[in-house]
Structure formats: structure tokens, C-alpha cells
Amino acid sequence: MAKHCVCLTLDFDTFSVWSAMGQNSPTPISRGEFGVVAAARLLKLFDVHALPTTWFVPGITLDTYSAVCADIHAAGHEIGHHGYDHISPAGMSRGDEIDQLRRGIEAITRVSGMEPRGYRSPAWDLSENSIEILLGEGFVYDSSMMGHDYLPYRARTGDRVVSGQLPKFGEPSALWELPISWSADDFPHFEYFRGSGLARADDVLANWLGDYDYMTKYLESGVMTYTLHPFVIGRGHRMIMLDRLLHELKDRGAEFLTAEAAVARWAAL
Ligand SMILES: [Zn+2]
Q1: CATH number of the domain that 203 lies in?
Q2: CA 174 to ligand 1 center in whole angstroms
Q3: What are the angstrom distances between the C-alpha of 169 and each of 113, 157, 158, 172, 177?
Q4: In terms of residue numbers, what domain contains 205?
């Protein structure tokens, strides 16, 4: 069994990411809608490569584009939780956070018949209650934090961090963390946002292969997690880059797992 694996994860935000920022006029909505076009392209590419992937889907995407979400599930990909309205829980009351979580679980269950085991927070931030709430709702793993680049770890609860004071770290919980990073995310490289983005695809390809190569050269085991947004990666030259990335990783002997399978393997080590 390979000790290194790759998780391809997709945050299927569609319009929700713009709507959560109050951008509800036709152009930002269409910007997100392109994700539905791209999702079909991506499913075809993953079918050709015979790869399992994990899609973190906001409840509002599931309830708006149920058919394509059902296609994702039918193709054997994992569907994880990504909030309901794509609003970060960091500033939410405990009650609102639980409400968003439960509405998202119901939306996933309506489409897939299965409750999610994984959570990735919208905008990649958590509240001080999130870990405990996720455990209470039956989640096995979170994928929103950045405490390592390759090794899953147990998420802590009870941290007390105040600016200007020594932090007091809490205890590891039963919830696994599958860490992510902005550098292995397509959005900041490619999406034109707040004056940046639109990077050259070959440069990002070199970065992403470098991250995989470092893991296999210097670590005995690890998980390389890439994050893709369909409306970002789905543009022509980026789809060509993604196809090349998958070929290059396969040539290196990479094993592809869903996030749930990677975490389960890690938990069993
Ligand atoms: Zn998102």
C-alpha cells in the first residue's frame, strides 16, 4: 500500500461565494453559474482518469443545482459539507452555526442519501465552537486549517489566543484535520479578485508538482491535498493544466483517494 496519496478536493461554490459577499447582480451570479458548466467537464476528466475525488458543496448549491450534484454522487465521488449559505462560521452565534450545519446535512442527504463525514468551512475559518459542534453532528474530519502541509492531525478544542499574550493551546479532539493551503488552491492563483489572480497555468503546475515531489522525497508518508473551484479551474487552459497535472502525478505513481478514505487510512496507522 502506497504511503503517499493525493486528495483532489473541489469546493463547488457556484454563485454562493459571491452572494455571501452581497454580490447578487447578474454578472457575479453568472460568474458562479459557470461552475455548473465546469462541473460537467471535470466529471468527464475524472472519469477518463478513473479518479475518486471529494466535492465540498454548500447546501444552497445542492438545492439549486440538484441534478449535477446527483451526477457527482452517482459517479462515485464523495460529497462533503461546505456550509449552507457559504458564510464563514467564525463570526456566527452557536445557534446559527448549528442551523447552517444541519441545513447543509439535510441538503446533502436529499441528493445523495448519505450524511457527510467531512466538513470544509466556507472561506476556511472556524469559530471557537466549530470542532465540538462538528463532532456532535457526527463528522469524522474537517479540512479548513493549515497546521501542516502533508500530515493529517487531530484538531484541538479549547485554544485561548489573545493578541499580545502567550497562547494557551487546548487538547487534541477526536476530529481529524486534513490540512489545506492557499498555495495548493486554484482560487488565489487564477481567479481575478481584488486585483490579483490570472497566473500562468504552467507556473502553478510546476508549484503543485513540486509540493508532491517534496512529500515523496522527504516524508515517509503524507497526503497532498489540492483544492479546486469548478468555476476557476474549468477555463480551457486550466483544464489542460489539470489534465497534465493528473498525468504527471500518475507517472510518479501517485495514489488518489477521497478525503474520507485518506483520513480513514491515516486514522488506522
Ligand atoms: Zn467555498
Answers
A1: 3.20.20.370
A2: 24
A3: 38, 8, 7, 9, 16
A4: 4-268
Tell me the CA–centroid distance for residue 183 and ligand 1, in Å.
Answer: 15
Instruction: Report how far ligand 1's centroid is from the alpha carbon of 82 (Å).
Output: 7
Say how many domains are in the chain.
1
CA of 88 to the centre of ligand 1 (A): 9
Ligand 1 centre from 268 Cα, in Å? Answer: 29
Give me the tens of pLDDT residue by residue for the chain, a chain 269 residues long.
458 999 999 999 999 999 999 999 999 999 999 999 999 999 999 999 999 999 999 999 999 999 999 999 999 999 999 999 999 999 999 999 999 999 999 999 999 999 999 999 999 999 999 999 999 999 999 999 999 999 999 999 999 999 999 999 999 999 999 999 999 999 999 999 998 999 999 999 999 999 999 999 999 999 999 999 999 999 999 999 999 999 999 999 999 999 999 999 999 98
Query: For residue 225, how far is its CA from the centre of ligand 1 (angstroms)?
Result: 15
pTM of the model: 0.97
Q: Is 175 helix (H, G, I), strand (E, B) or coil?
A: strand
User: 26-49 and 236-251 helices cross at what angle (nearest 10)?
Assistant: 30
